[in-house]
Amino acid sequence: MEPVRTCVGCRARAPRSSLLRVVADGSVLVRDERAILPGRGAWVHETDACVGKALARRAFVRALRVSGPLDTQTFESTLQRNG
């Protein structure tokens, strides 16, 4: 049985393999494609709708328990290039 995670964008539960793990590297939001980077991770569907909702609601900041603002520019640009 595959682990289930909750998308921080739409709040729907989904199998881990269908979600993208995101971590904070300092104050920069980073994709964790292989889900092996150290630290706390947040899971999100790799769609514009879910990522947009998560960014608008500041869900990544809360889920990753980061004290200050996150730089999401790099994350958003890599998401647009890949999808």
UniProtKB/TrEMBL annotation:
YlxR domain location: 5-69
InterPro entries documented for this protein: YlxR (IPR037465), YlxR-like_sf (IPR035931), YlxR_dom (IPR007393)
Pfam family, one: YlxR
Protein name per the record: YlxR family protein
Originating organism: Microbacterium mcarthurae
Taxonomic path: Bacteria, Bacillati, Actinomycetota, Actinomycetes, Micrococcales
